Amino acid sequence: MAKQRSDAAGAALRDGLVIASHGRHCLVETPEGERLICHPRGKKSQAVVGDRVRWQASEDEGTIEQVQQRKNLFYRQDEIRTKSFAANLDQVLILIAAEPEFSETQLARALIAAAAERIAPIIALNKSDVVAPFERAWARLAPYRRMHHGVLPLSLKASPEADRATLMKLLAGRTTLVLGPSGAGKSTLTNLLVPSALASTAEISQALNSGKHTTTSTTWYWVDDARTTALIDSPGFQEFGLQHIEAMQLAHLMTDIAEHATACKFYNCTHLHEPGCGVITQVESPGHPGAISPSRYRIYGELFAELSQSRYK
User: Fold this and answer.
1) CA-based, 20 to 30 A from 58: which of 27, 148, 222, 289?
2) Residue 73 DSSP symbol
3) Residue 299: phi, psi to the nearest 5?
4) How far apart are CA 156 and CA 128, in angstroms?
5) In 3D, which of 56, 83, 51, 82 has the Cα closest to residue 67?
6) pLDDT, tens only, 65-93
């Protein structure tokens, strides 16, 4: 009898995709395109946007019984808390702008977090129509172009149709998280690719009873009617903690540093002061050409110190 009840419960489980969340509520989409609110089983919600889940119907809502195994989870972590953006990503599009001036440190942190989860990054620089600031910003991105990161120039307001065509080629058939600071143009990009995004956000807000708060949380949008291309919009951020990364891992997660880290004399080289370091010899300086820009090496040193200290607090 107990086995029959167990089989019945198992048969009642259905597949779903988490497309938004607020507090302990998740909005889950079924394979047929229906959407309903689901609550986690237990005290804490483990499901994030992009998760594939198994859920069980409960009147007009549902209960998440299981989060399926993820291929990755993109998140940031400081000393106080962990903030998960989304799961099961194919790529992350880091959108920055010529104005306001972007933080190279925050860009580097986002790239490191993506590398740690083996998620392909795309860097997009918006506002190419603002000529002088764009030229300065483009020059600052030279080290990233050398690392073969796809650095994409955009002008989302001045040439929306051309940018839409370019972006669709990169995003088609994939699940992409759009990440970046406030003011870079994430909302403009989302509305360009998903004209119904504003209506969808309002609908999700109403469903989750979260009002304006949903606009500051991560949300999944289908770009095409066939539901093969997905865009995940995320809130802007000012800080990007990497407390989940060990200091000695750092070099392997920074492409330009990793390329020369195997040429060091010592296997446990920190690439900061050791003799015979393959990284230090490649740092560019006046009169000494090198493959590693001074700004990238400075960021590496600052992050190494930060992550080393956090282990002993």
Assistant:
1) 222
2) E
3) -60, -40
4) 9
5) 51
6) 999 999 999 999 988 888 899 999 999 99
Determine the Cα–Cα distance for residues 110 and 25; give it in Å rounded to an integer. Answer: 27
- Amino acid 126 reads N
CA distance 78 to 94: 20
Is residue 22 domain-shared with residue 119, that is, in the same domain? no
Clarify whether residues 55 and 79 are in a common domain.
no
For residues 103 and 221, membership in a common domain is answered with yes
Rounded to whole angstroms, the Cα distance separating 38 from 207 reads 11
Amino acid residing at 195: P
Identify the band that residue 247 occupies on the pLDDT scale cut at 50, 70 and 90: very high
Q: What three-state secondary structure class fits 84?
A: strand
Q: Supply the pTM of this predicted model.
A: 0.90
* Cα within 13 Å of Cα(53), Cβ side: 33
Residue 103 DSSP class: P
Paired tokens of 62 = 């549902």
